[in-house]
Design brief:
- This protein is an alpha+beta fold.
- Among the domains are: about 1-170, 3-Layer(aba) Sandwich (Rossmann fold), CATH 3.40.50; about 215-265, no CATH class.
- The chain is built from eight helices and 13 strands.
- The longest helix is centred in the middle third of the chain and has 25 residues, at about 180-205.
- The radius of gyration is 23 Å and the shape is globular.
């Protein structure tokens, strides 16, 4: 009897990575329950280019911004919730924090048909994920919605957290009353991410003669070196697997140990363009220029808006698209601004999504 060819596994990390990378994902919806001041009655946020959350103190506005930042930190300690983030500071197995994310993806969805839900009305293709925290200071359980089974599955789209994180819009959180050092970091991170994005986009562009740039060739060389090292190490890896399997089978008969050795898919993670300690200085041109955390709150906020205005103008002027979409998560945009500047700030917020791959979500007490 002829054996049919083995069906390609839908979770093939390389195919999924390349497809999601080309899809330029965009946030569509967040569903939050049992997180901070948000209780069992879930809060659903449908995201467009810009969302403005208006409400009194302790209504959960900042918690909504924090929710996306938390899930985008999956794989690090920043994704672990303290007890204070559970409802009323109590860990109740029936009321565990849960955040669900719907992401729009574009293009050919065949490499990930299992994870892509088609909306017939608006022709959107949606990937659904959710995170559940069972206890404080532990990693959340991440699940993907399997459209074929019509249920949540412990296997997940995008695979590992670091790969998934690279293929969702990048968050840029700016808190209203963060410590000056944290505010400085938020502004510097925002500018650095954009600069890196532009430099990489420029370096990946082929020359007029159609030749690859030095940066593109470097990535190809790094990828080849990694694969060569893994191939040369295969026999040593197999030897370790055999030793571990022999040891474990004495307790669990029939069990074997396999080391899933694969090179990092996103090779760009290995190339650092700037030092991690990059600083932003401000002051008189001919005088002393100090770090941002040494400036007053008004100066820091003005710098933030200057940076956002610059980004909006640059997004409009550039010919090529960014390598990755972005989401601005901003508390109290009118804080520390002169009344005349509030109108300009509003224009900047609405310009960002129309001139580039940006979405904006802000909280405010005023209309």
């Amino acid at each position: 009897m002829e054996i049919p060819p083995k069906k390609k596994v839908q979770e093939d990390s390389e195919d999924l990575f390349l497809w999601f990378e080309a899809s330029r994902p965009k946030l569509r919806r967040m569903i939050i329950r049992n997180f901070r001041s948000i209780g069992s009655n879930s809060v659903t946020i449908d995201l467009d280019d810009i969302v403005v959350l208006v409400g009194p103190n302790n209504a959960g506005k900042s918690s909504i911004l924090k929710a996306y930042e938390v899930v985008m930190s999956h794989g690090s300690k920043k994704a672990q919730l303290s007890e204070a983030n559970f409802p009323n500071g109590i860990v109740n197995p029936d009321k565990l924090p849960e955040i669900e994310l719907h992401t729009i993806v574009n293009g050919d969805t065949s490499p990930a048909v299992r994870w892509v839900q088609k909306n017939v009305e608006n022709e959107e293709a949606i990937v659904r994920e959710r995170w559940i925290w069972s206890s404080p200071n532990t990693d959340p359980k991440r699940q993907g919605f399997d459209v074929e089974k019509k249920d949540w599955d412990n296997q997940v789209p995008w695979g590992a957290p670091n790969v998934a994180k690279e293929n969702r819009p990048q968050p840029h959180r700016v808190e209203a009353f963060a410590h000056p050092l944290e505010q400085e970091k938020q502004i510097v991170d925002l500018l650095t991410a954009i600069i890196k994005d532009r430099v990489k986009a420029l370096q990946m562009t082929t020359s007029e003669e159609g030749e690859e740039t030095e940066y593109a060739r470097l990535l190809i060389q790094l990828s080849g070196i990694k694969k060569k090292i893994l191939d040369e190490s295969r026999s040593e890896i197999e030897s370790i697997e055999t030793e571990l399997s022999t040891a474990i089978s004495g307790i669990f008969p029939g069990y074997v140990v396999k080391f899933d050795s694969k090179a990092e898919d996103n090779i760009e993670n290995d190339v650092s363009l700037f030092k991690n300690s990059a600083k932003l200085l401000m002051g008189p041109e001919l005088g002393y220029q100090s770090a941002i955390d040494k400036q007053g709150s008004g100066a820091r906020r003005t710098l933030l808006w200057s940076a956002l205005r610059l980004i909006a103008q640059a997004e409009s002027a550039k010919k090529s698209k960014s390598t990755r979409p972005h989401v601005l998560l901003l508390d109290e945009p009118e804080l520390c601004l002169h009344p005349n500047a509030v109108r300009e700030a509003c224009k900047v917020l609405y310009d960002l999504p129309t001139k580039g791959d940006w979405q904006v979500m802000v909280t405010t007490h005023s209309l």
